[in-house]
Amino acid sequence: MPMDATTKRRSPSLPWKTRMLLSLITTACDAACRKNGTVNRRLLNLVDFRAPPTKKSINGVTSHDVVVDPARNLWFRVYIPKQHAGEDLPVIVFFHGGGFVFLAPDVMAYDAVCRRFARKMPAVVVSVNYRLAPEHRYPSQHEDCFEVLKFLDDEENRSKSLPANANILRCFLVGDSAGGNLAHHVTQRACEFNFRRLKVVGVVAIQPFFGGENRTDSEIRLEGTPIVSVKRTDWTWKAFLPQGEEFNRDHPIINVSGPNAVDISKIDFPPTMVVVAGFDALRDWQMRYYEWLKNNGKEVYLYEYPTMCHAFYIFPELPESRQLFDQVKEFIRKVLESSNGGTSA
C-alpha cells in the first residue's frame, strides 16, 4: 500500500507554541541526564515550575496535599470539583509520566492536567508523588503507588483525605507514559490483593512507557520525534532498573507482553483504555500491550491519534487533547454503567 502524507512525514504538525514547549522540555531533560547515570536536579529546577495546592477554587476545582509517608516523601494531591459536591463521584488515582526519573504532581503541567480530569469527568482526582530514579530504583515507584491504594482503603485515612462524595468502590487508575506503566502494574497487583473497600474498576493507559531488548519499527522509524528517542529511553531504563543479570529490558516490568510476561489470563483485569499516537516512538510497544490484553481475553479499547506525538495531551491548545479528555469521560461513563462497583462510599 502507498504511504499517505502522515506516514511520509517524520514529525507531527504542531502549533509553534507547542513545538517550543516540547523543545524546551526535551533540551532540559537531555541536559540534566549525566553520562554517569545521575540526574542534575539543580539544573532541572530552573525550568521545573511548581504549582501550590489551592483551597480557593480555580476553574471550579480546589486542591490539597496529603502526606502518606514523610520518610520517603510519599504524598498525593487531591483535586475536588466543587460544583459536583452533592454527587457520588468516582476516584481517579493518577500517576504522572517522566520516565520514572522526572516530574511530580505539583509540576504546573500535571497540576493543570489533573484539574481538567477533576472538572471534565467529573471525578475526585488523587495524583501520586512517587520516588524517582536513579536515586530510587525499581520497585520503589510501583511500591509507592500501591501504598497509596492501601492508604485510601483505610476508612480513617479516606475520611480525612477525600471528600465524603468520593466513591473508592469506583476507582480508576490513570497514567501517561511511565504513569501508564504504573497504572497497568499497580492494577495487576490490585486484582490479587484483598482490599477492604477500594475497587479498581477501570484503567486508562495514555501512551504507556513499555520497551524491550529488541528494537521495534517505530523506535527506528520515528527516531528524532519529540520527547522520546531510543537514546533517551535506554538511559531512562538503565537509571530505573536495579543492577543484576535478570534486570534487562525484557524484564516484565518493562516488556509487559514479552517473553517473560506475567500470565494474566485468570486475573479479573478491569476494562482498559489504551491511547496511542502515530508519531510516538513507543507506539509499537503500546500496540503490543493492547494486543496482549485482547489475546488474554480482557476488555480493552484502543484510541489512536495518528498525527500526534508523545505527551500531546498535556497541551490544552491542541484539539486532540480536548478530544482525548472527552473520550476518557465517555470510557469512564460506560465502565460505571456496566460496573457493579456500587453507588455509595
Topology:
Elements: H1 5-8, H2 16-32, H3 41-44, E1 61-69, E2 74-81, E3 89-95, H4 108-120, E4 124-129, H5 140-153, H6 155-161, E5 166-176, H7 178-191, E6 200-206, H8 217-221, H9 230-240, E7 272-279, H10 283-295, E8 300-309, H11 319-338
Parallel strand pairs: 3-4, 3-5, 5-6, 6-7, 7-8
Antiparallel strand pairs: 1-2, 2-4
Domain Alpha/beta hydrolase fold-3: 92-313
Pfam families: Abhydrolase_3
GO molecular function: hydrolase activity
Spatial arrangement of strands, main beta sheet? 1-2-4-3-5-6-7-8
SSE order, one letter for each helix or strand: HHHEEEHEHHEHEHHEHEH
State the end-to-end CA separation: 53 Å
Name the helicity range: 25-40%
Globally, the shape reads: globular
Oligomerization state of this entry? Answer: single chain
The count of helical stretches stands at 11
Total beta strands: 8
Give the percentage of residues in beta strands: 15-25%
Structural class estimated from helices and strands: alpha/beta
Average of the residue pLDDT scores: 93
Q: Major beta sheet, specifics?
A: 8 strands, mixed
Provide the low-confidence segments as ranges: 1-7, 341-345
Q: Rg, please? A: 19 Å
Can you describe what's shown?
This protein has helices at 5-8, 16-32, 41-44, 108-120, 140-153, 155-161, 178-191, 217-221, 230-240, 283-295, 319-338, and strands at 61-69, 74-81, 89-95, 124-129, 166-176, 200-206, 272-279, 300-309. The protein is globular and about 50 Å long. The chain starts with a helix and ends in a 7-residue tail after the last helix. The longest helix is centred in the last third of the chain and has 20 residues, at 319-338. Helices cover 35% and strands 19% of the residues. Strands 1-2-4-3-5-6-7-8 form an 8-stranded mixed beta sheet, with helices on both faces. The protein is an alpha/beta fold and 345 residues long. It contains 11 helices and 8 strands.
